[in-house]
Amino acid sequence: MLTEEKKNILVIGGGSWATAIVKMLTDNSRKHTIYWWMRNQEDIDHLRKYRHNPRYLSSVEINIEPENLTSDLKSSVAKVDVIILAVPAAFLKGAIAELSAEDFKDKIVVSAIKGFEPSDNLIIGEYLNTRYNVPFSNIAVISGPCHAEEVALEKLSYLTIASQNTEVAQLIAQALSNRYIKTTVSDDIYGTEYAAVLKNIFAVASGICHGLGYGDNFQAVLISNSIQEIKRFVDAVHPIGRDIKDSAYLGDLLVTAYSQFSRNRTFGNMLGKGYSVKSAQLEMNMVAEGYYAVKCLHEINRIHKVYMPISRAVYAILYENISPSMEIRLLAEKLS
Ligand SMILES: NC(=O)C1=CN([C@@H]2O[C@H](COP(=O)(O)OP(=O)(O)OC[C@H]3O[C@@H](n4cnc5c(N)ncnc54)[C@H](OP(=O)(O)O)[C@@H]3O)[C@@H](O)[C@H]2O)C=CC1
Ligand SMILES: O=C(CO)COP(=O)(O)O
């Protein structure tokens, strides 16, 4: 059985989430062999010497064999059975540009990314399938209401691993679980990915409203309407029976919309307080996926034509230079 095998697992990415995933994997009792690719050789040298990522979750001690840290993507991919992608969606294409479909052959490929691949407007599972011929039976996604910062603190957290192949989902779920991470599996790979990408847009909206001075009463209405918007869209693009109240959908929205750690909410909050999009991005040294996602969604929704007033308002603020206060005033008339 797949779940009983010891695997070589490569994590691709050097940011907070990749760091948290490496921590989860290395705190797991099954002791798969973990490899970690990041683009920056100085960070690798620092990690080898001090066992800490110098720039993200820098308090976390990383227990990985120094020789398994690498900036050589192609040869590390060749060594492993499982590849976990954890770079922001906008940079994925560039990060793996040297790889071809042949490199992914017979590998299990897992997306921990919550974003659309922007040149094709595809969720990552679809991108892996269409661009690299990875069969859906070898693809999984990691989702759930889980911030890297709380993983660093070993706060009890839950992840959902979605795949059309239950054995693959179980393998990844088992590899990530440990005393502070609980995992469940799902076969709704499309719904899980779309909901995880969309919630970033609503967290930007939540941050904007907070920055503008709207209170908890309004936020509750905004988030209730947001989950309905997610449901309408996900059911339109992939209509199967799903309970939108599950943690992988509603939980993921709630944590991102309300948490102090949320990159997307922080970004939105700055916009509400009067920062320009550019200056907010420069000030944060982390990536708010919602910024990229809302543009892709706007384009995808030209086909589906789902009623999405909150996402539309975020798009207007980020890409049409409409003032946040005016746009949210107009949006407020459409919520109930
Ligand atoms: N953080 C979290 O709690 C969670 C994040 N995710 C998802 O994980 C993915 C990664 O996000 P996260 O780790 O948080 O990101 P961070 O904001 O923590 O880190 C940003 C990463 O992006 C890289 N990067 C920035 N600019 C560029 C560029 N121009 N070209 C290539 N790479 C670049 C950085 O590399 P460098 O340091 O070398 O500049 C760094 O590795 C996202 O899709 C996010 O939605 C999912 C669940 C939880
Ligand atoms: O997806 C995430 C938590 O589930 C991370 O995104 P945020 O940092 O915006 O919350």
TrEMBL record:
What cellular-component terms does GO give this entry?
A: cytosol
Q: Does the keyword rRNA-binding apply?
A: no
Protein's cellular compartments: Cytoplasm
Q: Locate the residues binding substrate.
A: 114, 263-264
Q: Which residues bind sn-glycerol 3-phosphate?
A: 114, 144, 199, 252, 262-264
What EC number(s) has UniProt assigned to this enzyme?
Answer: 1.1.1.94
User: Do the record's keywords include Nucleotide-binding?
Assistant: yes
Q: Which GO terms describe its biological process?
A: carbohydrate metabolic process; glycerol-3-phosphate biosynthetic process; glycerol-3-phosphate catabolic process; glycerophospholipid metabolic process; phospholipid biosynthetic process
Which Pfam families does the record cross-reference, listed alphabetically?
NAD_Gly3P_dh_C (PF07479), NAD_Gly3P_dh_N (PF01210)
**Pathway(s) the chain acts in:** Membrane lipid metabolism; glycerophospholipid metabolism
List the molecular function annotations (GO) for this entry.
glycerol-3-phosphate dehydrogenase (NAD+) activity; glycerol-3-phosphate dehydrogenase (NADP+) activity; NAD binding
- Any idea where the Glycerol-3-phosphate dehydrogenase NAD-dependent C-terminal domain is? 188-326
Task: Kindly give the PROSITE patterns that the UniProt entry links to this protein.
Answer: NAD_G3PDH (PS00957)
Binding locations of NADPH:
16-17, 39, 56, 114, 148, 263, 287, 289
Q: Which residues bind NAD(+)?
A: 91, 148, 263
* Assigned keywords, A-Z: Cytoplasm, Lipid biosynthesis, Lipid metabolism, NAD, NADP, Nucleotide-binding, Oxidoreductase, Phospholipid biosynthesis, Phospholipid metabolism
Entry similarity comment? Belongs to the NAD-dependent glycerol-3-phosphate dehydrogenase family.
Q: What is this protein called?
A: Glycerol-3-phosphate dehydrogenase [NAD(P)+]
To which species is this protein native? Solitalea longa
What lineage, starting at the top, does this entry show? Bacteria, Pseudomonadati, Bacteroidota, Sphingobacteriia, Sphingobacteriales
